[in-house]
From TrEMBL:
It comes from Capitella teleta (Polychaete worm). The keyword Ubl conjugation does not apply. Residues 1-18 form the signal peptide. Keywords: Signal. Residues 70-145 form the Apple domain. Pfam families: PAN_1. The lineage of its organism: Eukaryota, Metazoa, Spiralia, Lophotrochozoa, Annelida. SMART domains: PAN_AP (SM00473). This is Apple domain-containing protein.
Length: 150
């Protein structure tokens, strides 16, 4: 059974917790929900230095540290109906994503891109809010980050 927390150190990569029965490290970004896949645990008796070294050497965490690093996932042949907050004409998907990332009037989460006419819509909603609709000529792009990072 794990005993009380002995130490928490915030590093550039995350937080290290040394425990008598092992250690655990996780992200130190405030107000960000850490998915279970982004936590690691070392079992057995380890020192603070061993735990810190393991954390600093970790390359397997898959989350961004701020909203500008949030990658977009493409969901071809779909769009998010009725939630558009901004419209752009004659742009590339990359231009539309860049605008979404730089938007200051709302927290842009997704874009819908019409391939034939090169138009796109920016929205605050995502698949958690509205069910995607199938449309062969449109592609939906969505940030992969947890909403709490915004």
């Amino acid at each position: 059974m794990l005993t009380t927390l002995l130490l928490t150190t915030f590093l550039s990569l995350g937080a290290v917790s040394a425990l008598e029965a092992g250690c655990r490290w996780a992200d130190g970004v405030p107000e960000y929900s850490i998915p279970e896949r982004n936590n690691k645990k070392i079992t057995g008796k380890v020192t603070e230095d061993q735990c810190k070294a393991a954390c600093e050497g970790e390359t397997d965490f898959t989350y961004p540290r701020n909203k500008d690093e949030c990658p977009f996932v493409k969901i071809p042949g779909t769009y998010l109906p009725g939630r558009n907050l901004f419209f752009m004409k004659n742009v590339s998907p990359e231009d539309c994503i860049a605008r979404c990332k730089s938007e200051t009037t709302f927290h842009c989460r997704t874009i819908d891109y019409h391939r034939a006419n090169r138009n796109c819509n920016l929205a605050i909603a995502d698949r958690n809010d509205v069910v995607l609709t199938v449309h062969a000529g449109l592609d939906h792009y969505e940030r992969t980050c947890d909403r709490k990072i915004f």
